[in-house]
UniProtKB/TrEMBL annotation:
It comes from Candidatus Nitrosotenuis cloacae. It holds the Pfam family Cupin_1. It comes from the Archaea. PANTHER family: BLL4564 PROTEIN (PTHR43698:SF1), RIBD C-TERMINAL DOMAIN CONTAINING PROTEIN (PTHR43698). Transmembrane segments: none annotated. Residues 40-126 form the Cupin type-1 domain. This is Cupin.
């Protein structure tokens, strides 16, 4: 058994800034509590930052912990060799205490809605029993009509 507090300092996760539209930081909760079945992170979005468009090979749960954010779901319309057309299908507001379940392979983005405030959430990435590693595929996008160029 391991106990930790999400608000205490420690275990920052180095993140790729190309995965976000602005200043974002992250704490590795799963590393602190030694979870092997889930990757768990406390993510802080500052000044209107949000994730780039992405999908996961496993299910994900988000628990909003501070501020106001949103989850946006997208649909791929047509595939081209290096890019594809997209359409936003849903925009879900996230307030403190809200919990949302995102099925695997869902094209989405999430983050802060306010340029003046921080939004944070806990992300629980559920590792499938069929896969030994949770993977995320990141895309550049205009968030309106097209996406492509996988972000490394």
């Amino acid at each position: 058994m391991r106990k930790a507090n999400i608000y205490s300092p420690g275990n920052p996760r180095k993140i790729n800034p190309n995965w976000f539209t602005g200043k974002t930081s992250m704490k590795d909760i799963s590393g602190t509590i030694h979870s092997e079945q889930h990757n768990i992170y406390h993510v802080y979005f500052k000044g209107g930052s949000k994730t780039k468009l992405h999908t996961h090979n496993g299910n994900q749960i988000l628990i909003a912990t501070k501020g106001k954010g949103k989850l946006e779901l997208y649909k791929k319309l047509q595939n081209k060799k290096s890019h594809f057309a997209i359409k936003k299908t849903e925009s879900i507001p996230l307030n403190e205490g809200d919990i949302v379940y995102i099925p695997k392979n869902t094209l989405h983005t999430h983050g802060s809605i306010s340029k003046s405030k921080t939004f944070s959430h806990i992300a629980i990435n559920i590792i499938s029993s069929k896969s030994s590693e949770y993977k995320t595929v990141w895309y550049e996008s205009d968030y309106a009509k097209s996406a492509g160029s996988i972000v490394p």
